[in-house]
Write a structure and sequence with these properties.
Order of helices and strands: EEEEEHHHHEEEHEHHH
CATH class of the largest domain: Mainly Alpha
Number of strands: 9
Helix content: 25-40%
Largest sheet: 5 strands, mixed, barrel
Structural class: alpha+beta
Strand content: 15-25%
């Protein structure tokens, strides 16, 4: 039986030309999850699709699918929010590119997650409002890992199993998905990224708070640098791929260090 979905909220993650007039889109949709769809005649249409299918745009769409194994056909789209500042600022664009690349690497079709959809919409809103992009990406990665089932374990050592005491530095082990305590570090050879106690406590606080409370968490530049380094290496380990947008993100946002945008 053909499938038809209407008034479906979605975020545009990727768009590429297909032939002379069509576009193939990768979207993340509420209630559906990741979706690949073809917008036929997108280059010619003056009404259905013009200025509605740009990267990062939040839209509502109508699509049809003739059979489960066939690509969805995008029939209509209405723009809800363009998040235009993301495409007009180099620093914000490269921050959005990290979000986009991690989502393309970390999601597959057929799995819906409304918590992840809400995270995507929230992150794009924060970036477009000129919040500190390094803070936003830190929030995003912590919450993304939770959504996709790889929540970092920050409460106990992944080697000995003892609770983290809340003081003293530890290592964050990407292949272990959590902390290695100082006692285990002294007793054996463990590889990871050093995290100070304040960083561990802050990241754990980000994990536990809802999105609308994250603005209350202030992150110093040293804490941000330490957090982002560990989160980047964890993402690269999970996805088994280089994250090509990362260096441009760090370079483009370097001048923002020390500034706060809230």
């Amino acid at each position: 039986m053909p499938t038809i979905r209407t008034d479906l909220p979605a975020v545009v993650l990727d768009s590429r030309d297909h032939g002379e007039s069509d576009k193939i889109l990768t979207l993340y949709c509420k209630d559906v999850g990741r979706l690949t769809a073809i917008a036929k005649g997108a280059h010619r249409s003056k009404k259905r699709f013009v200025n509605k299918l740009e990267l990062f745009s939040l839209i509502t769409l109508t699509y049809s699918r003739s059979a489960p194994q066939r690509m969805a056909v995008l029939n209509e789209a209405e723009l809800i929010e363009s998040f235009l500042p993301i495409r007009t600022s180099s620093a914000i664009f490269h921050s959005g590119s990290v979000v986009r690349e991690c989502l393309l690497l970390g999601t597959t079709e057929g799995l819906s997650d409304n918590q992840l959809f809400d995270l995507i919409a929230w992150v794009l809103q924060e970036l477009s409002q000129h919040s500190n992009p390094r803070e936003v990406i830190t929030y995003f990665l912590i919450k993304l890992f939770d959504c996709i089932g790889y929540r970092p374990i920050l409460s106990k050592c992944q080697n000995c199993g003892l609770d983290y005491p809340g003081e003293g530095e530890a290592l964050f082990s990407s292949n272990g998905g959590g902390l290695i305590c100082s006692n285990c570090i002294r007793a054996g050879n463990y590889y990871g990224r050093k995290l100070q106690a304040g960083t561990i406590q802050t990241l754990a606080s980000i994990q536990s708070r809802p999105l609308n409370q994250l603005r209350n968490i202030r992150l110093s530049d040293p804490l941000l640098n330490e957090s982002l380094e560990s989160l980047f290496h964890y993402a690269r380990y999970l996805f088994q791929r280089e994250i090509f947008s990362w260096k441009l993100f760090l370079s483009a946002t370097a001048k923002m260090a020390g500034n706060h945008y809230r």
